Amino acid sequence: MTHLNKQSLNRGQLINHGELTVNGGLNQNNGTLTNSGTLTVNRAMNLNQPGTMNTGVLSIGQRLTLNSNASLINECRVSVNGPVQLNGTFASESGSVLQSTGRMTINSQGVLQFNGAHSMVWIDALRLNGSIESNGSNQLLYSQNTIQTNNRAEITSASDLLQVWAPNINSLLSNYSIADGTNAVIPAGACNPDGFNN
Fold it and tell me: For 100-122, what is the HEC assignment?
């Protein structure tokens, strides 16, 4: 296992195939970040550029922020012990999971994409000012508390593709083309060992 102190990635590439722990925060400014192993960031992670790819396990100790041009493609597991702030694009691919103990805020330029099948986003709460896009099947957005939307919020999905569970699900069903996720089934897998309703 390799340990780094607070890290700023200003150019070049950071590629992790094993176990890497960043003892402080991680700021990606101009370089690219690829994780196919286990990457643990003990504090906050700030992404400022496109080109972050996760096919392994990414654990963040405080918060995850994607700034305006940033993108993160998640093909396995991202867990955040705190809030998630999207001003860029977070892509949740087939079989992947994003779990956050805090509120996810999707700002006006932010996009949460569900691609493929069986992807899951499990959050404490959601404030949607930007967009959610569903491009696959059997996907679940689970909010333990309410989902707040404003008049700029967009959810694009065929009615049976994106399943949503939240305490205020009835108002969401009447305003957006989504399905009630109460009985959704997301199979457990290597990246999402718990699944949903297995």
Answer: ECCEEEECCCCEEEEEEECCEEE
Q: Which residue has the tokens 């997301």?
A: 186
Burial of 68 (0-12, 13-18, 19+ CB in 10 A): exposed
Any idea where the domains of the chain sit in the sequence? 47-180
In the chain, count H helices and then E strands: 1, 26
pLDDT digits (tens, 9 = 90+) for 8-61: 777 778 899 999 999 999 999 888 899 999 999 999 999 999 989 999 999 999
Contact indicator for 66, 58 with CB cutoff of 8 Å: no
Long-range contacts of 73-81 (CB under 8 A, 24+ apart): 74/98, 75/191, 76/190, 76/191, 77/191, 77/192, 78/54
